[in-house]
């Protein structure tokens, strides 16, 4: 009988209430209550029957739901049967002295035999305890050695990144069904990671993960152990990413502080200004270009601009004062020849000083001229890009918009009489 036929027979034989009692039996009640001393009565907890968390409702009439429940029971029973039986660590219970027992159940044992039996039980318990501790130590050392492998490191990084980016409320039914099976083979684990977390492991990484999470050494991974290690990897990856962001933030703060200190040391400290005796037309053009770029980026309507205007509304400024003000306010460093060109151009009286108000008007005029030039360049670039787009569109339409006639090379046309003549010629010659 197949499994499907057995399931159908079970569901046809039993009702929903009977299946409920089979899947979730009620706890057995003790017929004879045990006596308890009065002194320990107030300390002992009250025993309550453990009620089932599953209630008998409308879903028990659903055939698909009952099939899933029976399938989960089969997987659970199969996983329990697949696990090897562990020897008991506790010694066998010895009968207390003075208790009367029937001769068939408890044979009479001498005192020496009882001492030997107790000694053997203690020795067995100690041996099993040492073996379990030795096995746990070997498993811990093996896991520690596996962590040093490159494949394990890359697999842990992939799983940790998936766990850190995973949202618990977004898993689907596939995720739940995969975790209902308590034991996953390497193939099931690989398919589960690929489908639910988009994690693709290489064969070496998959082997390291299975060996790392395999507790009992049967080549399979327990779902509970996998989830525990999976969330551990996610916590480690989240902490690592947080520390990396913190280090990057501290590095950026140190870099900004160094740049700020360099700028303050360059522009805030007074510097001796020297004026060259001669200059060229190129020096004047370079100085005007530097001032024009600074003026184009300067906002004349801000409060900062009003405060700067008050600096230039004072008394006339010498070459050193003008160069120092330009350097501190607009961060424009002029050479000695460029300063000489500016003084020679805007010093009308040739007395070695420049009127600040007139220089500020000249500065704003340079800004307007530079902004107009940038606008013209942007418009020309926009028109050039539009022209290239139109040319490309016309080329695409000419290439793919019209129907192209296929070039066909037909074979040579042969007349029927020539074919008959070619076939009859060899026969006539024979």
From TrEMBL:
Keywords: Calcium
Coiled coil: none
Gene3D superfamilies, sorted: EF-hand (1.10.238.10)
EF-hand domain sequence ranges: 334-369
GO MF annotation list: calcium ion binding
InterPro entries: EF-hand-dom_pair, EF_Hand_1_Ca_BS, EF_hand_dom
Aminoacyl-tRNA synthetase keyword on record: no
Region of interest called Disordered, as start-end residue ranges on this chain: 78-110
Basic and acidic residues bias spans: 97-107
Protein name per the record: EF-hand domain-containing protein
């Amino acid at each position: 009988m197949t499994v499907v036929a057995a399931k159908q027979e079970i569901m046809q034989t039993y009702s929903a209430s009977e299946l409920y009692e089979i899947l979730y039996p009620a706890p057995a009640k003790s017929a004879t209550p045990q006596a308890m001393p009065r002194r320990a009565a107030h300390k002992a907890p009250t025993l309550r029957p453990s009620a089932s968390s599953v209630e008998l409702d409308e879903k028990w009439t659903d055939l698909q739901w009952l099939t899933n429940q029976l399938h989960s029971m089969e997987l659970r029973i199969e996983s329990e049967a697949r696990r090897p039986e562990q020897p008991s660590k506790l010694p066998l219970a010895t009968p207390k002295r003075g208790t009367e027992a029937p001769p068939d159940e408890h044979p009479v044992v001498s005192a020496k035999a009882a001492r030997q039996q107790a000694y053997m039980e203690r020795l067995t318990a100690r041996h099993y305890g040492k073996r379990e501790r030795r096995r746990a130590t070997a498993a811990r050392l093996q896991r520690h050695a596996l962590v040093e492998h490159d494949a394990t490191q890359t697999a842990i990084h992939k799983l940790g990144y998936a766990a850190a980016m995973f949202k618990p409320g977004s898993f689907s039914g596939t995720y739940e069904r995969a975790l209902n099976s308590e034991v996953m083979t390497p193939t099931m684990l690989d398919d589960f990671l690929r489908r639910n977390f988009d994690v693709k492991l290489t064969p070496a990484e998959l082997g390291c993960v299975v060996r790392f999470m395999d507790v009992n050494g049967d080549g399979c991974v327990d779902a509970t152990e996998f989830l525990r290690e999976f969330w551990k990897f996610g916590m480690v990856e989240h902490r690592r990413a947080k520390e990396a962001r913190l280090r990057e933030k501290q590095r950026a703060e140190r870099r900004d502080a160094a740049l700020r200190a360099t700028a303050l040391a360059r522009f805030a400290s007074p510097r001796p200004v020297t004026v060259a005796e001669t200059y060229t037309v190129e020096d004047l053009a370079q100085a005007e270009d530097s001032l024009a770029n600074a003026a184009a980026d300067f906002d004349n309507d801000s409060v900062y601009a009003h405060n700067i205007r008050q600096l230039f509304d004072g008394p006339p400024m010498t070459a050193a004062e003008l160069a120092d003000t330009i350097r501190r306010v607009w961060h424009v460093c002029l050479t000695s020849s460029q300063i000489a060109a500016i003084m020679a151009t805007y010093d009308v009286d040739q007395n070695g000083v420049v009127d600040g108000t007139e220089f500020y008007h000249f500065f704003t005029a340079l800004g307007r001229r530079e902004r107009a030039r940038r606008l013209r360049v942007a418009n020309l670039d926009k028109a050039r890009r539009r022209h290239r787009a139109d040319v490309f569109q016309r080329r695409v339409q000419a290439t793919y918009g019209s129907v192209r006639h296929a070039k066909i090379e037909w074979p040579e046309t042969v007349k029927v009489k020539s074919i008959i003549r070619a076939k009859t010629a060899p026969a006539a010659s024979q």
